[in-house]
Design brief:
Elements (H helix, E strand, L loop, with lengths): L6 E4 L15 H14 L3 E5 L5 H13 L6 E7 L11 H8 L4 E7 L2 H7 L4 H17 L3 E7 L1 H7 L1 H14 L3 E6 L6 H15 L3 E5 L6 H10 L4 E4 L13 H12 L6 H4 L2 H12 L16 E2 L2 H9 L17 E2 L7 H10 L9 H15 L8 H13 L8 E11 L5 E11 L2 E9 L2 H13 L9 E10 L10 E9 L2 E9 L2 H19 L2 H4 L4 H7 L1
The structure holds acetyl coenzyme *A and pyruvic acid.
Pfam families: HCS_D2, HMGL-like, LeuA_dimer
Protein name: Citramalate synthase
Catalytic activity: pyruvate + acetyl-CoA + H2O = (3R)-citramalate + CoA + H(+)
Amino acid sequence: MAEQSFQLYDTTLRDGTQQEGLVLTVEDKLAVARRLDALGVGFIEGGWPGAVPKDTEFFRRARGELDLKNAVLAAFGATRRPGIPVSVDAQVRALLDAETPVVTLVAKSHTGHVQHALRTTLAENLAMIGSTVRHLVHAGRRVFLDAEHYFDGYHVNREYALAVVRTAAEAGAETVVLCDTNGGSLPDEVRAVVADTIAMTGAPIGIHCHDDTGCAVANTMAAVDAGAVHAQGTAHGYGERCGNANLFTVIANLVLKRGREVVPLERLRDLSRTGRAITELTGVRSDPAAPYTGLSAFTHKAGLHASALRVDPDLYQHTDPARVGNRMRTLVSDMGGRSSIELKARELGYDVAAGSEEVARAAARVKELENRGYSFESADASFVLLLREELAGGPGAPPFEVDSWAVGVSRRRDGEVRTEASVRLRVDGESVTATGHGNGPVNALDTALHSALDPYFPALTRLELVDYQVRVLNGQVGSGAAARVLISYRDGEQRWGTVGVDENTVTASWAALLDAVHYVLLDGPAEAHGSPSLAAAATAG
Ligand SMILES: CC(=O)SCCNC(=O)CCNC(=O)[C@H](O)C(C)(C)COP(=O)(O)OP(=O)(O)OC[C@H]1O[C@@H](n2cnc3c(N)ncnc32)[C@H](O)[C@@H]1OP(=O)(O)O
Ligand SMILES: CC(=O)C(=O)O
């Protein structure tokens, strides 16, 4: 059973969208809310109705379209303006009009902010808090109060900061959330201030941290350890400046490290998937090194790590990645040895042993090729071809041969630039020629290759080049190699990559293009060529 008393509060749709470059439509916001609800988050702050038209619309549509199973919606807004009755404050009215079960009010708790930003008296600020909370509670809302700049304010005037908490709690706020608005606090300070605030006020306390010292999650954990019963954060730590506390990390830490089931264990397994889905919706690239959910969170590159992981994954992992829906990955590189090759080969479906000669040869070849500028980390398909060659004791008979290829770029008098490639191949002894056009030499060569080979090998029709990167390596590698080309492909549901290295960028690209074709024809995903995967066959054998 999920712990009932602890309040897990997401503010992705409000504070998260204060991140530079993050813009969500109402449709996106509804979709993010559904994802967070499915994960088991208790509260979802949808935005500031009355201030941001899109947020007003979000709450309007949420009433008819959001069928939340776990979460409760919260509308966010400020206390009434100074010097006016709460009943006439249009912003407060808009909070009620959002018709959410919860309203979260932001209020000043730092004397300097009250006097200089709000330009009112300390007494009036307390009156604004008290009257707004009472007004909303009287209207049937559960009220949380975000005490802005609480930690900085506490250091300037502790008595006033505590008075804000007491005023809100006495007026009926269910939880008073201490905000590290400028994100400048460190965990020991947060722990001490939260403990003192609880001791002095007895109010249920929450925590809202920003990451300007890189401590937002640590500060959140420190607050919970000190007795906070409510934690706020955002998906992937989205937020203004350096972001907010990453709620995914907070959730996993609370469940796995503190034994507090703030979401049920079975939902925790959806954590990584939820993260990926929200990344898709926001379009903001997520950090591969993010704890628990990042692509690299359980990815191992060093040979010594791989050697120990082969025996027991716990030796180099703090938790089982499956608990958060992630998985262990091994990278093949010049930093690996035979164990890395064995683990990677197994990941790709080959049952090989680190002690075998083939694996030793593959490890030596990877080291030698990486010294010449290759990089196999993101070129699984090229690695599979290398591995298969070693397992088979040499290159097998190719499905086709390359006689020649050419590529030319020309500019016409009217300014049009044309890139044309031609390939001459030999398939089953038959000569095949084809030409292709494209927006550059690689695109043109890819088109020509497809044009020549697709009629013979229909599996290739699904192969789609999705990314191309070239890196000039002059002076960085042992030989005179000049360019490394990495190409990523989509093949149905699968994505994989190839690598080519040569002094000539187009020749390096051609090598990477050919690896992709060979991979699909020799070893690619089973559904791509309608026959059992050779990888699977290798495992079985
Ligand atoms: C720490 C946080 O992240 S809190 C969330 C911050 N989020 C946002 O600001 C996003 C949405 N904000 C907005 O759309 C606008 O700022 C609005 C609609 C709220 C206000 O717009 P405007 O009326 O044009 O005022 P403006 O943005 O210039 O200044 C904010 C006003 O709110 C007042 N204010 C600030 N904090 C509070 C508070 N806790 N309670 C009441 N009023 C407050 C300021 O004193 C200022 O008042 P003034 O207009 O009399 O100077
Ligand atoms: C309320 C809020 O977002 C903050 O103080 O940081």
